[in-house]
Specification:
The complex is a heterodimer of chains A (about 110) and B (about 120). In chain A, the strands form 2 sheets. In chain A, strands 2, 4, 5, 9, 10 and 11 form a 6-stranded mixed β-sheet that branches. Chain A is about 0% helix and about 55% strand. Chain A has strands at about 5, 10-15, 20-25, 30-35, 45-50, 55-60, 60-65, 70-75, 85-90, 105, 110-114. The chains are: A mainly beta (about 110), B mainly beta (about 120). The interface between A and B is medium-sized, with 27 and 27 residues.
Chain lengths: ~110, ~120
């Protein structure tokens, strides 16, 4: 079945540093989603990408949909302590309709030292 | 923005009893909702796809008679853990897709502890 390889598994950085994480897939996805999950809570959508090559920003976050449609990355600039959490990439093969099952990466645990 | 709400957020039940978790889409209609289970420090594991007005589709290895799913309306899906055992203790999360687009939103999650 489809798999997403997310890396790195964990990161320990100093406040103010930039962060980059990525996901690669064995097959084509037409939608990429990035979520953040705080302990004990559900994932919160950060950025949604629908088009190959698309680069989208949300505040200090920037994500790109790879042109091969098999990868995506998320960058966080000037990290702050509240950026701590687990970041998940997710994708699904459809570019239309939201009733498809998501395939998730295994997550990147981000720790930010003040 | 779109909101998906789960209730209860935390529940403790005795072994052998059943517990129901609700998932509601608050400002959009969702013909499909998804139920996940998450173990500590792990990714989300899809349990089943809840289809409005029809039977849920369960992932391989998930017992349909143990995890009953009902999706009676376009804004509500319920997951009932029947005859709960301590090994069913986990974090259960639902998600729903906004039918006008591709975006999928998650509920806040429900902690189940079976004692």
């Amino acid at each position: 079945g489809q798999q997403l390889n997310q890396s790195p598994q964990s990161m320990f950085i100093q406040e103010g540093e930039d962060v980059s994480m990525n996901c690669t897939s064995s097959s084509i996805f037409n939608t990429w989603l990035w979520y953040k999950q705080d302990p004990g809570e559900g994932p919160v959508l950060l950025i949604a990408l629908y088009k190959a090559g698309e680069l989208t920003s949300n505040g200090r976050l920037t994500a790109q949909f790879g042109i091969t449609r098999k990868d995506s990355f998320l960058n966080i600039s000037a990290s702050i302590p509240s950026d701590v959490g687990i970041y998940f990439c997710a994708g699904h093969p459809s570019s239309g309709g939201s009733n498809y099952k998501l395939t998730f990466g295994k997550g990147t645990l981000l720790t930010v030292n003040p | 923005g779109a909101v998906v709400s789960q209730h209860p957020s935390r529940v403790i039940c005795k072994s052998g009893t059943s517990v129901k978790i609700e998932c509601r889409s608050l400002d959009f209609q969702a013909t499909t909702m998804f139920w996940y289970r998450q173990f500590p420090k792990q990714s989300l594991m899809l349990m089943a796809t809840s289809n409005e007005g029809s039977k849920a589709t369960y992932e391989q290895g998930v017992e349909k008679d143990k995890f009953l799913i009902n999706h009676a309306s376009l804004t509500l899906s319920t997951l009932t853990v029947t005859s709960a055992h301590p090994e069913d203790s986990s974090f259960y999360i639902c998600s729903a897709g906004d039918i006008s687009g591709n975006t999928i939103y998650f509920g806040e999650g429900s902690w189940l502890t079976v004692v």
